[in-house]
Amino acid sequence: DTVLTQSPALAVSPGERVTISCRASESVSTGMHWYQQKPGQQPKLLIYGASNLESGVPARFSGSGSGTDFTLTIDPVEADDTATYFCQQSWNDPFTFGSGTKLEIK
Amino acid sequence: QVQLKETGPDLVQLTQTLSITCTVSGFSLTTYNVHWVRQPPGKGLEWMGAMWNGGGTDYNSAFKSRLSISRDTSKSQVFLKMNSLQTDDTAKYFCARYNYGFDYWGQGVMVTVSS
Q1: The predicted structure's pLDDT at residue B115
Q2: What residues contact B47, with CB distance under 8 A and at least 6 apart?
Q3: For residue A71, what are the β-bridge partners?
Q4: Backbone phi, then psi, for B62, in 5-degree steps?
Q5: Cβ–Cβ below 8 Å for B100 and A49
Q6: CB-based contact, A21 to chain B, within 8 Å
Q7: Distance from chain centroid for Cα A31
Q8: For B33-77, what is each residue's pLDDT tens digit?
Q9: Cis peptide upstream of residue A94 (ω within 30 degrees of 0)
Q10: What is the b/e burial string over B36-49, where b = at least 16 CB atoms within 10 angstroms of the residue's CB?
């Protein structure tokens, strides 16, 4: 299975720029998607196909990468962005998720 | 608007079978794929399997032959059935629509496996 590795946690101040990384154990081309999950809620799609902004998601969120290295960027960060962010690949079977990066806004 | 809603038991006994229904609205099961994803308390997300729009299915081999996914298009429902439940199957179970990314999710149903 394709293993997706994410840093466990980050802490930033409002207004700053934050990058969340996801590294795949094998190429997933651009079949990478990013989700935001707040406690008690279902995940919310932010970015699909590595770099495409989902409808309704603020332009503060952006994604980049291909192959094995991907990044989700939030610029500028707002207090409401406190959440866990997951990457997910759909290029290889089975679909897999990263373990999540918990973002704290100081 | 697009909605997905999971219904199922809160509690299942050890070694028994879990059955969850995902009822969708706002789209057709013959146009979009619906997947199942679960999340143990305080942990990450795990893809379980898919019902493709053409009626085929795909399963995560981690669940071996325990898992079955089916559908009733006339009722806009997708079904998950998993047998031989263990305590580590305690999780919130979500159904989600796949459209190159899971663009819509249900609220999930929290299932506890009790011994």
Answers
A1: 86
A2: A88, A94, A95, A96, A97, B35, B36, B37, B60
A3: A21, A64
A4: -60, -20
A5: yes
A6: no
A7: 13
A8: 999 999 999 999 999 999 999 999 999 999 978 999 999 999 999
A9: yes
A10: bbbbeeeebbbbbb
